[in-house]
Amino acid sequence: MLKTNRDFLPIVSVQGQVVQPGSRGPKIDSNGKVHYIPGVGGITYNVKIGDKCCGWVGDHIEPGVSTKNRDEVLNAGYNTYSCIGNEAVIVSGDAKGAKGFVTGKHGGAEHVMICFDDSVLAKMTNEDKVLIKACGQGMQLTDHPEIALRSVSPALLDKMNITEESGGIKVGVAKIVPAKLMGSGLGFTPVHNGDYDITLNDKALAEEYGLFDLRFGDIVAITDADNRFGRLYFTGAVSIGVVCHSDSLVPGHGPGVTTLMSALDGKIVPFVDEKANLKDFFL
Q1: pLDDT tens figures, 228-240
Q2: Containing H/E element for 157?
Q3: Within a 10 A sphere around the Cβ of 273, how many other Cβ atoms?
């Protein structure tokens, strides 16, 4: 087990509720075509972690249950302190008491996505409140202080395929993505919430890296990407994240990646692992 400061991490309650889907108007693709299709929010019954995130008739679709605190100030805490893999408990409505876990955080919408069983989804409504036992921000790898951890829970860290090697760690990922394909979210600070997008408009390049097979919940590596304190291009850096929302028709957008860890100078070495998905870890 990787040595961390987990014994000193507080576990705090943050609370949101299922957020009603809204409409930001039509989506205009890179060819100028107008699309009226579903977007973010709500309970998405047939889109789950482990499913492909490309091909849906929708834009920035969020798998499972999308949640948010209606108070903007409180939502900043809800989004920031929630970490991937944290336990979530429904605290109101017919599904009260049911448990799930956090799967992603979507910037712009400022949503936290949560996975619940189908039997639970059937009982939920857009008014249900959800409490998350938030833990993970501030976690450090004791023997590798140069590696920044962001929004990764201790539970997820334990399940990831990570081995230590001299001077750093090797991390199993479903896909390796070059930084030149990263779009919306570049320059965003801090990286403790939100995500940034893999653009798939260059279809030949996306095919080369197998990105049309990306799945919700995939752990991915982004090469030449520094996500320690902001999201930027930096030669030799590697960032690890989790795919949190679907593809998009909007230029510069695509499947979203919530940051989990980042380092410079070869401290993180990714390798392909077909089982590097939240579904394999938690379900």
Answers
A1: 999 999 999 999 9
A2: helix 154-159
A3: 16
